[in-house]
């Protein structure tokens, strides 16, 4: 993982094809297997992206780009958080075939400085969970 300016960047390799991995970002039931407790997703430009992370935290935004199975972009921010409000930052996920698996590159931009390290840690943990969920 790297941090540069207002961004967090992370890459992982998953033992699953891009078509399957893509669904973990766009299908609510699959999304719930690696991040959050309940997702409301409408994967089309302008469609809702909302994820209840736990009993007290939810993130919300909109899908901006949906290009199966290679790229998904959505806005991100926390409900009830003025530092990173809903839709105030952008998450770009790029999926590339890598042998029998997929190389996932996640770039989160537009974060204010105090939120960078918590997002770096959060994405590292969630992407580790995605590696496990997609491989099983």
Detailed description of the structure:
With about 140 residues, the protein is α+β, with helices and mostly antiparallel strands. The protein has one domain: 2-Layer Sandwich (Alpha-D-Glucose-1,6-Bisphosphate, Chain A, domain 4), CATH 3.30.530.20. Helix content is about 25%, strand content about 40%. The chain has three helices and eight strands. It has an eight-stranded antiparallel sheet with strand order 1-2-8-7-6-5-4-3. The longest helix is centred in the C-terminal third of the chain and has 23 residues, at about 115-135. The chain is globular. The chain starts with a strand and ends with a helix.
Please give a quick description of this structure:
The chain has 136 residues and is of the alpha+beta class.
């Amino acid at each position: 993982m790297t941090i540069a300016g207002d961004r967090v960047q992370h890459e992982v390799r998953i033992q699953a094809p891009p078509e399957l991995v893509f669904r973990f970002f766009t299908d609510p039931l699959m999304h719930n297997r690696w991040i959050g407790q309940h997702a409301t997703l409408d994967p089309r430009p302008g469609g809702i992206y909302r994820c209840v992370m736990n009993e007290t935290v939810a993130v919300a935004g909109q899908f901006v780009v949906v290009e199966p199975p290679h790229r998904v972009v959505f806005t991100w921010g926390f409900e009830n958080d003025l530092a990173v409000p809903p839709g105030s930052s952008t998450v770009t996920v790029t999926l590339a075939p890598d042998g029998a698996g997929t190389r996932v590159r996640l770039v989160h931009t537009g974060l204010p400085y105090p939120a960078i390290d918590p997002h770096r840690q959060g994405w590292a943990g969630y992407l580790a969970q995605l590696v496990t969920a997609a491989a099983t």
